[in-house]
Amino acid sequence: MAIKRGSKVDKNFSSSAMTDLMFLLLIFMLIATTLINPNALKLMLPKSSNQLKDKAVTTVSIEHKKGAYNYYVELEKVDGIAGVATALKARLAGQESPTVSLHCDKTVAVDEVVKVMNVARDNNYKLILATEAQ
Asked: What is the pLDDT of residues 67-113, one digit of tens each?
């Protein structure tokens, strides 16, 4: 008496569902990367023909609005130059060669830029002044 199995396992694999999923993930990533903007502050940077491509650990932005200067460290508003120094020390603690990228509007006075430069010098941070290519 021969006993037969009632169900057979199909060994074929259909990859159409996986292809659909990968296509949707690709579309999501393409849309998401176009929406990501590393610098949300709209600053008119000064022009320069020399461009340095160094990887900055953090960014400091200075914005001039209504006669007052607003300071941002990684897009978080801080109170004055003392707030910049405190925020940079907290963010760059333990870094071997910390690099700070300074973004400031064309209308910002040189005095304000020099204050941030002094904070970087006092703490042995490497400072890059962001400019716009000519």
From this structure: 889 999 988 899 989 999 999 999 888 888 888 888 888 888 888 88
Determine phi and psi for 9, rounding to 5 degrees.
-85, 130
Distance in angstroms (rounded) separating the CA atoms of residues 59 and 2 = 78
Structure tokens at 133: 């290519």
Do the beta carbons of residue 128 and residue 59 sit within 8 Å? no
Residue 24: inside a domain, yes or no?
no
The two beta strands, 58-65 and 68-73, are antiparallel
DSSP secondary structure string for all residues of 11-25: -----HHHHHHHHHH
| pLDDT mean over 58-69 | 87
Number of domains in the chain: 1
> Which domain range does residue 56 map to?
47-133
DSSP string, 15-80: -HHHHHHHHHHHHHHHHHHHH--S--S---PPEES-------SEEEEEEEETTEEEEEETTEEESH
Task: CATH number of the domain at 121, please.
Answer: 3.30.420.270
- Report yes or no on 62 lying in a domain: yes
